[in-house]
Write a structure and sequence with these properties.
This protein is an alpha+beta fold. The chain is 43% helix and 26% strand.
């Protein structure tokens, strides 16, 4: 039973971690290569990887989506340590409006213009930090959604994810608060009930044992009478 609880907790923790990894903002140092617009089919299960900016788009099976093609600096340790090598990364540029995840993005056209202004070549690069959420998966055509872009002086810029740090601090605080409230509630309400139930069970066990002993003594009196007759 203990092993089952441990496995269940690990599964819940894994799902929670995947949701956070998908939804929390990430930052990449990139060089914008090109921007374009392409019509995408949204008629299968991969629709979950695309934004739903309005009610009308929820009923469409395809729509035009803007993309930003970049060369991204590789990183290690979830993006905290930059490396010298690069890789290709393509971002989609969609409004999220009031849908999940709650970035309240309404400036797709402005962001596309800013990305156009940062297009550069390898000989004369312009580097930028692009903020996004989501995953890139070539097999299901999933693209991270760009939220913001800003120019930087060099690809060696240090990025501190202040929002993510604050988010985990708040989550840890509320987790500790809920845990403390639960322990206090358990000490005041649950444990006394369990102790009372345990005492009642012990009393019941003692009563049953006493009755059994009385029946045993009564049976012994009849056995003695039978022995006297013989």
């Amino acid at each position: 039973m203990k092993r089952i609880r441990t496995i269940f907790r690990l599964i819940v923790l894994l799902i929670f971690g995947l949701v956070l990894h998908y939804a929390l903002p990430q930052h990449d140092v990139v060089r914008v290569v090109n921007t374009y617009q392409e019509r995408q089919d949204l008629n299968d299960w991969t629709r979950v990887f695309w934004a739903r900016p309005d009610d009308q788009s929820a009923t469409l099976i395809n729509r035009d989506v803007q993309f930003i093609q970049t060369v991204k600096k590789r990183t290690m340790l979830l993006g905290f340590i930059p490396r010298e090598t690069t890789e290709v990364m393509v971002y989609r540029n969609e409004d999220t409006n009031f849908s999940w995840p709650f970035y309240f993005k309404f400036d797709t056209a402005n962001l596309q213009t800013e990305a156009d202004d940062l297009v550069s070549t390898a000989e004369n690069p312009k580097w930028a930090v692009i903020t996004h959420y989501g995953w890139r998966n070539e097999y299901v055509s999933a693209f991270p959604n760009a939220i913001a872009i800003r120019p930087v002086a060099s690809p060696d810029v240090t990025i501190i994810p202040w929002f993510n740090i604050g988010f985990f601090v708040v989550v840890a605080f509320f987790f500790g608060l809920v845990r403390a409230m639960w322990r206090q509630f358990r000490e005041r309400s649950v444990d006394p009930l369990l102790d009372s139930a345990g005492d009642q069970y012990d009393e019941l066990q003692a009563s049953v044992s006493e009755r059994r002993s009385r029946i045993g003594r009564w049976m012994d009196t009849w056995r003695k009478k039978d022995d006297r007759r013989h």
